[in-house]
Amino acid sequence: MGRKLIYFILFVGLTLVATIGFSQSGDGFFYLEKYNQRMDSIKNYSSTFTIRTSIKSLDVPDVTGKVFFKWPAHYSIAIDGFAVLPKHKLTPLARFLSRSDFKALMISTEKVNGRLCQVIELSPVDTASLIDHYTIWVDKKVFVVRRMLMIEKDKSEFMYHYTYKTNSDLLPVKLTYTFEYTNRNAGMVLYNQLRHERKPAEPLLVKGNLIIEFQYYDVRREGDK
Amino acid sequence: MFLQETYKMFARPYAFFAMLVVIILTLLFGFSFAMEGNEYYTSFFNTFNKGVEFEGNLINGNLFAYQLFHALWLFIPFLVVFVTGGMISEEKNEGTLRLVLSKPISKTAFFTARFIAAKLFVFLLVLLMAVLGLGLGLAIFGSGELLAFENGKFIVLSSDEVLIRFAAAYGYYFLVLITVASLSMFFSVLYNNSVKAIMASASVILILYFISSLEIPFFESAKPFLFTTYFSSWSQLFVENINWMNLMFDVIVLVVHILVFYVLAVTIFNKKEIYE
């Protein structure tokens, strides 16, 4: 009787552990795939945007431009002049992270801008990748990516923080992009055509942020005429 | 009187040689820029391209003009010295000064007319720099934002305001070259020999600029009084927030030096007897 009880407890315990373990890894992509399904409902849009740049050692004036999107993944940007853009420009990076390339782990739940989000960590399957992992905050109710953090193996950090007009909006009205990394091969060149001066290459801490505000028009969704 | 002295100024070949040198240097620089202009941009790109992406091209005529300015600004004063250093001493040496001063004109009027003619030459030289730098640069490489590097920072200046900044920078540099011309005319009055006058002017500029550049506490108290300390202030017109108060102070210092050199030169010229 005692032995049967022990076996029963062990069986229940192992089942519980297996369920929790598998659910942690297996459902990680559930939220991202729901987000992608929602994003697929937008067939095209146009947007004007303004970029405010704040980067150490670089002064850039505010810039305005336009972005055009056509489903499934065609983004084109038009800017009059010179602009600094986030990595991957204005494409939503979370849209392009696929199950076959990443292992997903559900970490915890956290609130972002007052909204409860599932925190998911994605690690690349390819161990030679420069990326260490992504951490993505997906709204648990409306499946919208509210924040995304990319960390590379050299500890460089790149954060995308999306702000929306309403809780269920898919298109952000503001993207705050912050980054910090140490450029180990940078050498600031004081360039003079007749007197080349180079500082020896030394590690350079580069940090800054871009705040991009969007205004959308001509948004066509699935089912619209 | 002024027209006559201006005619004499440009009748001598030196003024045209100086302008020819500027043209040759600009063309050589233009060739170099066309071949290697990307290198300047590459160092900027390599510093930031890990965290951000860039849209637009910064290799343009404004960058060319800016780089040209940086390349030439220290050499042009010596061209000015070579041309203006002999304006009085050469005529003394040739014996024609006594002939000129035998006319019913005061020495002050004569010197002032020469002084103004020298300023006209400097104005034309700066205008040539601007036309070649900006004009040629914009015509060949097009317009756009300017990528400047000042005070240890990269600065991107919008194309709308860049032309105004260049105009102010060339204006300030004009004042720098007038200071140099005033100094060399002062030495031209002191010496009877053009070579001595030119050597003295060039030596003074070299020594004072060397002191202005040294980062030694011993010389710090002397630097504000040296006109060479203010030679490179034109570059402060390419920072994001221009400190106009500092620039005004620099302009006043240069103007004071011009007046001092002029007054000293006129005083000595009036007192000196012309024997040859």
Question: What do these coordinates show?
Answer:
- The complex is a heterodimer of chains A (about 220) and B (about 280).
- Chain A is of the alpha+beta class.
- Chain A is built from two helices and 14 strands.
- Chain A has helices at about 1-25, 30-40; strands at about 40-55, 60, 65-70, 75-80, 85, 100-110, 115-125, 130-140, 145-150, 155-165, 175-185, 190, 195-200, 205-220.
- In chain A, the strands form two sheets. Chain A has a ten-stranded antiparallel β-sheet with strand order 4-3-1-14-11-10-9-8-7-6, covered by helices on one side. A two-stranded antiparallel sheet of chain A has the order 12-13.
- Chain A is globular.
- The N and C termini of chain A lie far apart (about 70 Å).
- Residues about 190-195 of chain A have low confidence and may be disordered.
- Chain B has a two-stranded antiparallel sheet with strand order 2-3.
- Chain B has one domain (about 1-270).
- In chain B, a hairpin with a 2-residue loop joins strand 2 (about 145-150) and strand 3 (about 155).
- In chain B, helix 1 (about 1-10) crosses helix 7, helix 2 (about 15-50) runs antiparallel to helix 4 (about 75-85) and helix 7 (about 105-140) packs antiparallel against helix 11 (about 245-270).
- The chains are: A alpha+beta (about 220), B mainly alpha (about 280).
- The interface of A and B includes residues 55 and 83 of A.
